[in-house]
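Protein modeling request. Please complete all fields; requests missing the sequence field cannot be processed.
Requester role: graduate student
Desired output: 3D structure, token encoding
Chains: 1
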Amino acid sequence: MYITHANSIIESIKNNKGFELYISKKSSKTIEIEKLAKTQNIKIIRISTNDLDKILKNKDHRGFALKLKPEKNKNAKTQTKDFENLLETFKKKENAFILLLDEIEDPQNFGAILRTAEQFSIDLVITTQKRSAKDNSTVLRTSSGASQYVKKITVANINNTINLLKNSGFWIYTGDIKGQDINKIKINDKKIALILGNEGKGVHKLIKENSDFLIRIPTSGKIDSLNVSVSTGILIFEIKRQLNLL
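Delivered output (246 residues):
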């Protein structure tokens, strides 16, 4: 996978994700990126703009691109084991905040949510195996590289995951247009799992039934809902504000 967004490239290099750096133009930004790449012993390839266009299939770039190291895809068994280990870790913590995404399909929304998750120190982001955006160059760009710092796992069934979380002391809060106004309820739970749903369909019915609380953001406009990435940021902020975790 190639990425061309400067901030994403810089964060990828810092996170030791870079494999090869392609440069076709010299600028203050390429000098900065090249200097950083040398500290990580990343191979630097000077190339013509036409050749870089061909490699990127005419994808927009500013004269540089970073080829990422291939990542191993974890199978379902490995992901389940990782989740079980994380639950044991969370049991020892006084506070924990997990974000569950029920079939968020737009990679730009996913990237924006991961950027918010990183900024608010969310402990874990859980996504579904089917009908969910996957990590790609769009997610990296939209998150400004923050997606690489967020702990993420994928699960086959969110309802099973909810039950495991409840057994580990988590309270389940789900964003829903028919829920209670978030500013009118008192949140004092130490371990929170917040669920946000698909851009068009919202959260599945069974997931809502399995939740402890349905919450909404009070608004006064003519449109009845906010973009899911915007809603995620507002809900995380308000929950953390009430818990004095900001």
